């Protein structure tokens, strides 16, 4: 087991599957134990940054648009715009208003100046004990300029702010040898020392119309993070026991080891 105590700066990615367990709308049902875990991390002196999906799902719950229907990109962008404020209301309640919204685009991450600005703002927020809540700025990005999924966005944010751990919270326990939603006998892979093509071969897509990328984008994110010296943990955020185990420093989910041996973990 990797020692959770040693990690200082943690980026936690929260997928749409957790925000919208009913397939649309938004709910704090699975965010309560996650928020409790974040409070625990803060008490231990760790820095926490959240990358939260769910704006499109939240927007669809507030309008008559179902994501199972084929929606145009402008319609999805409008839903994201409607849903994002609602999503932030949940986070504000969970963190007693000690949180702040940052919406990023791929060009923000690619521009040296804007990337430095975003990094400075995140660090300043952390020094003010405010939790940065990041999402892609879906309403303004066009096709060629999207990061496209929040797994990869979270990995890029983790690298940008020198995090040492990325936790991806989804609706499955971690990476399995087959998609556990379609294979009863799928086996969890608890530890990946190095991500190989064989891991990408077993990581499938998602059949959830509100989610993006499935296990494929989570593996891309873990690979990006791992190459940048950041460990990644994919866990089931719907399982209360996940966060209890992490608090007790016990194994959970799938752990992807960083490929760079960092002397210290304080970014
Ligand atoms: N090998 C695999 N192991 C685990 N999950 C997998 C695998 N292949 C595909 N998946 C799918 O990936 C889904 C998680 O991704 P996704 O639906 O995009 O969730 P999120 O909203 O959390 O990003 C799982 O529900 C599962 O159906
Ligand atoms: N930016 C989008 C989330 C896109 C996304 O990657 O969703 P997910 O695969 O559920 O993490 C939104 O807020 O709806």
TrEMBL record:
Any Pfam family hit: AA_kinase
Primary subcellular site in the record, as a coarse category: cytoplasm
Enzyme class: transferase
Stretches assigned to the Aspartate/glutamate/uridylate kinase domain: 9-236
Keywords: Amino-acid biosynthesis, ATP-binding, Cytoplasm, Kinase, Nucleotide-binding, Proline biosynthesis, Transferase
UniProt: ATP binding residues: 13, 170-171, 212-218
Binding site for substrate: 53, 138, 150
GO terms assigned for molecular function: ATP binding; glutamate 5-kinase activity
Catalytic activity field: L-glutamate + ATP = L-glutamyl 5-phosphate + ADP
GO CC terms of this entry: cytosol
Localization per record: Cytoplasm
Stored HAMAP family: ProB
Family listed: Belongs to the glutamate 5-kinase family.
Function: Catalyzes the transfer of a phosphate group to glutamate to form L-glutamate 5-phosphate.
Protein's name according to its UniProt entry: Glutamate 5-kinase
Source species: Aliikangiella marina
